[in-house]
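Posting this for the archive.
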Amino acid sequence: MSKRTMNFSCRGLLLMAVLLMAACSQRPSNERQVGAQPRIFPDYVGVTVPVDMAPLNFAMADDSVTRIDVTLQGVNGGSLHVNGTYADFPLEAWHELLQRNRGSQLRVSVAARRDGRWTRYSTFLISVSEDSIGAQAVSYRRIAPGYEQYGHMGIYERRLSDFTETTLVDNAATPGQCINCHTSNGGRSNEYVYHARGEKPGTFLLKGQGAKGKGQDPENIATEDSRDLIGGAMVYPGWHPGGRYIAFSTNKTSQMFHLANAQKRIEVYDASSDVFVYDIQTRSVLRDTLTMRYLWAENCPAFSPDGRWLYFVTARRQVYPTDYQKECYSLCRVPFDERTGHYAGAVDTLVRAGSDGIPSVAWSRPTPDGRHVLFVVTQWGYFSIWHPEADLWLLDLQTGEHRPLDEVNSQRAESFPSCCSRSRWFLFTSRRGDGLYSRIYFSHLNADGRATKPFLLPQRNPKDYDLRSLYSFNTPEFRLTCNK
């Protein structure tokens, strides 16, 4: 070995030693103990997570904290230690620790450095569920909040076991177009529909679509004939589990602004709306007066997991916009025959508007076991993301009882619940963080209808991603498969 090479190697080793010493110096020393649990963002204190969820990276809520030191200790063994400006857990080590402690708990010890001094907080617990998430990804529309103009937006897919995000549909190629209201066929990433407004409106069906747009071109199924037949566009979709049928609403949507209500900035209402079923095979619209009544507004369709029922909400049409506060929806369902593609009986009202402290119902989603229905309750209307009082409720189909899901509700708007078809996990959006932006939360619902404390969709650097982001997450749903 030459002298020059030896000198270079020595300098490299010296540099590594200096870096290691610097890293070690960041470890807490002369720390003071406090009896309180740490205030962290996101709030993961006491949550329950699936064993296959991405790392719950977090930071201290206090921006004056310059460094944190975190140790995870598994009750069933294993540990993980990180030290940095935020807790950034290595992916492989995180999943190994969760697998080892499936059905058990992790003890989380946090120390924070502020003004050059370290503070050690009381330990808190994270529970690891026996029940895996059952889905590979979650899809969502990410949009900058606005009223009149459509900015950059798209539909994206986020892998749940890590932080990988894939673009499904982006309006960058079609400026001025609003992309929304998407849903997949049984959670499959390569088959879904979405609605678009603006310069090139329509409802688009994608089958066999892969990553980066590979696959067949989207088919606009909202033809002139179908629009004439249903009296409008094909908007909010609900896919039948058999894959042949999609229930849609057709809406004539308007909006207005509140001048004196600081809590409610905007009101969205429909001059008219109906629910109908579209047959993919025959490319035909199945109309029925049971869900297309002239004096009533039907909306928010969703099929049951077994395909035997179509759930929807309905309200008596009002004089708009003056009587928008009288637009109160009831939750109903009608039996559906997959063989004939028609309704097979009378409409059943499950939750009547104005009864039992429920003014208006929206966005119902039955659970996979057929026992419960998640739905949103607001003071009026159905556009719950603009209603801070909007809460999730739960209906027990066996007993007929319903209650607010207080375990997951906040003082801000909860909306858009969605259930995973292969587990008891569900997700929803909430504006609990700042009242302005909707973000995605997860919770686990047991067989008796009790939910765990919700947790925010993990991000690699949560403060940088969530608190500095100017985007909302809307209409999320689980994806059983994901683009590679």
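The first strand starts at residue 32 and ends at 33. Confidence is low (pLDDT under 50) at residues 1-25.
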